Amino acid sequence: MSNSRRLFFALSLPDALQQQVVRWRAEAFAPEAGRPVAAANLHLTLAFLGEVSAQKELALRKLAGRIAQPGFSMRLDDLGHWPRPGVVWLGTRRAPRGLLQLAELLRSQAARSGCHQSALPFHPHITLLRAATQPVAIPPATPGWAFSADAFSLYESVFENGRTRYQHLEQWPLAKQASP
Ligand code: 3AM
Predict the structure, then answer these.
(1) What is the pLDDT of residues 5-63, one digit of tens each?
(2) Per residue in 144-179, pLDDT tens?
(3) Is 125 noted as a catalytic residue in this protein?
(4) Which helix H or strand E contains 56, and what residues bound it?
(5) What positions does the record give for the motif labelled HXTX 2 (predicted)?
(6) Among residues 40, 49, 51, 93, which one has the fewest Cβ atoms lying within 10 Å of its Cβ?
């Protein structure tokens, strides 16, 4: 399997927003709540592809390059805890249609290319803490950051020296958002 890589499509967070989220997280959660995801690893997963051969990766990159979806904006105003996977997440109370359509498109392309897709419904989220398997005090609100997506990316999940790091591989633009 040395020829295959563990890949996923995701939205990246701008550097400034990464830093704001990380600073807020340090105040908002107790240190024992879970293991903080590194600022550079914060992302919103659109479609998880699993272990993908070089040939399949090339085909999926070509399909991604033909996507002509509009960009979108959302408010990061929701928080939650999934105790089973041990995840504390940041999300949105109103997922924009553009986000749902983009994820649906990438997931169906992945499924047609033979990448197993979870049967669970898509729940857009940015993982803040991992290994959060004990009850966590969730703050009542987030600062409600505005987040605009004008591109989506392909990442490789690399596990080395006991740590997971996400390597950015390629980015594709979303079409300009229509003015309101
Ligand atoms: O940070 P999140 O949770 O959004 O949970 C994994 C992470 O997303 C998810 O893919 C992202 C990069 O690893 N992931 C890992 N294994 C998965 C699987 N089998 C998975 N998503 C769905 N099915």
Answers:
(1) 999 999 999 999 999 999 999 999 999 999 999 999 999 999 999 999 999 999 999 99
(2) 999 999 999 999 999 999 999 999 999 999 998 766
(3) yes
(4) helix 54-65
(5) 125-128
(6) 93
Which phi and psi (to 5°) does residue 43 adopt? Answer: -160, 165
H or E segment at 69? none
**Long-range contacts (CB closer than 8 Å, 24 or more residues apart) made by 154-158:** 154/7, 154/8, 154/9, 154/60, 154/61, 154/64, 155/7, 155/8, 155/9, 155/10, 155/43, 156/5, 156/6, 156/7, 157/6, 157/7, 157/8, 158/6
Pocket test for ligand 1, best of 6, 8, 158 (most atoms within 8 A of CB): 8
pTM of the model: 0.95
Asked if residue 1 has pLDDT above 60, the reply is no
Give the Å distance between the CA of 49 and the centre of ligand 1: 9
Judge if the beta carbon of residue 41 lies within 6 A of ligand 1: no
The single residue listed with the structure tokens 């995840």 is 87
